[in-house]
Design a protein that fits this description.
Elements (H helix, E strand, L loop, with lengths): L1 H6 L2 H37 L31 H11 L10 H17 L9 E2 L5 H6 L9 E2 L8 H9 L2 H11 L3 H24 L1 H7 L4 H11 L13 H24 L11 H4 L9 H26 L8 H10 L2 H4 L18 H26 L7 H31 L1
Antiparallel strand pairs: 1-2
Helix pairs in contact: 2-13, 2-16, 3-13, 4-7, 4-13, 7-8, 8-11, 8-17, 9-17, 11-13, 11-17, 13-16
Enzyme class: translocase
GO cellular component, one term: plasma membrane
Subunit structure: NDH-1 is composed of 14 different subunits. Subunits NuoA, H, J, K, L, M, N constitute the membrane sector of the complex.
């Protein structure tokens, strides 16, 4: 037993659990809740409405004159009120449904969306060596190397993401079929056709990206872009070569195809044909209520957040700080390195394996989530700006334009790389 316990790497186990709890429960789920709030306020601004602006900490229930508005901004507690409403609502299950699959479907939508975040690098690395003296006093060995800011650093990151994300369609199809009602059934059929059609374009869109990187590890892709310029912003390192600038054309095409396919895969407007209210009442989740409906809702927003994170990692440098060579030059010139000793021997904003300062690791995490938030706002802007496609238009766009364009883009990238290799 002692030998078995000795074989366990407890430091690795503890850091993995901390990373899972941090990313899932402290970042993704709160982001899901406040994405809904942001969508309501953003759409209200677009449509010249007020939006949710009253919900606060309800002290009036206890006899006080006013509720507390956090930071003076009304409505910030609205996501918690929504969550409480879903928990307290009657959990109604129609008699006509296939009960087992009807209950399984919401979980199949939510769980794959959260599992895909395991391979997303949400930062560079965190050096916890300053904790070693305290850990050694308690009898531990401390941290021998910095901790990577990713739950599972797999060498097949994009393939893992696509494989797990594709399971989400089973939740929607099962919800449509097991409800035993015509509107959910039509929504389920539409969703499966839509997701299969756009999965081809989505997969083909990242092949040119993988050809440029030459690997499938998302952490190494982020590190490469930090050192050599982002795929869509090649302004430093090897990004200044003629080959990278010519490759910018197929990379922009890949980014556009990837983004459009992500909209279709996440059932967001203008591609929400699986649940469009004007034709199918509420589509595949017409017969759902309370927390089962909330799981569909959470799954959709979690998929949107993970999709935004993947787009940021592949095309927008991941956690890399934009134009860091320029900022480092300015910082050292004005004396930031000597003014703040805790910054280190020089003012460093770039990733250096094994020697990235702790504060810089935290800054990289902040930069990554800032980019993700901007991308989510872009999702919201498109939803409230464009009208919904017809289903035949959606199919034509996927099979007669996106697929061919993605295929031609792979060939274009190969030709450009072959020309510069010679």
């Amino acid at each position: 037993m002692a030998a078995l316990l000795a074989s366990f790497d407890f430091a690795f186990l503890i850091t993995s659990v901390v990373k899972i709890v941090f990313l899932t429960f402290l970042v993704i789920l709160p982001m899901v809740a406040y994405s809904v709030y942001a969508e309501r306020r953003f759409s209200a601004i677009i449509q010249d409405r007020v939006g949710p602006n009253r919900t606060g900490i309800p002290l009036t229930l206890f006899g006080f004159k006013k509720d507390i508005q956090i930071f003076g901004i009304g409505g910030l507690v609205q996501p918690m009120a929504d969550g409480l409403k879903f928990l307290l609502k009657e959990d109604f299950t129609p008699k006509s449904v296939n009960t087992f699959y009807y209950w399984l479907a919401p979980a199949l939508t939510m769980v794959p969306a959260l599992m895909t975040c395991a391979v997303l690098p949400f930062g560079s690395e965190l050096d916890f060596s300053f904790l070693n003296p305290m850990i050694e006093k308690l009898g531990g060995t401390g941290f021998s190397a910095p901790v990577k800011s990713v739950i599972a650093d797999l060498n097949v990151g994009p393939l893992f993401t696509f494989a797990i994300a594709s399971l989400g369609v089973y939740g929607i199809v099962l919800a449509g079929w097991s409800s035993n009602s015509k509107y959910p059934f039509l929504g389920g059929v539409r969703s499966s056709a839509q997701m299969i059609s756009y999965e081809l374009s989505l997969g083909l869109s990242i092949i040119p990206v993988l050809m440029v990187f030459g690997e499938l590890n998302l952490s190494k892709m982020s590190a490469f872009q930090d050192a050599n310029g982002w795929l869509l912003l090649p302004f430093w390192g090897e990004g200044l070569t003629a080959e990278r600038w010519v490759l910018l054309v197929p990379m922009v095409i890949s980014f556009c195809i990837f983004t459009v396919a992500m909209f279709a895969e996440t059932n967001r407007l203008p591609f929400d044909l699986a649940e469009c209210e004007t034709e199918l009442v509420a589509g595949y989740h017409t017969e759902y209520s309370s927390m089962k409906f909330a799981l569909f809702f959470l799954g959709e927003y979690a998929a949107m957040i993970i999709g935004s994170g993947l787009a940021v990692t592949l095309f927008l440098g991941g956690w890399s700080i934009p134009f860091w060579p320029f900022f480092e030059y300015v910082g050292n010139m004005i004396g930031l390195d000597t003014a703040f000793g805790w910054l280190g021997s020089s003012f460093q904003l770039h990733y250096s394996a094994g020697s990235t300062p702790f504060w810089l690791g935290l800054l990289h995490i902040g930069v990554f989530f800032l980019k993700v938030i901007v991308f989510i706002l872009f999702f919201i802007l498109i939803r409230w700006s464009l009208p919904r496609f017809r289903f035949d238009q959606l199919m034509k766009l996927g099979w007669l334009f996106m697929f061919e364009l993605a295929l031609a883009n792979v060939i274009l990238t190969a030709v450009i790389m072959a020309c510069f290799t010679k």
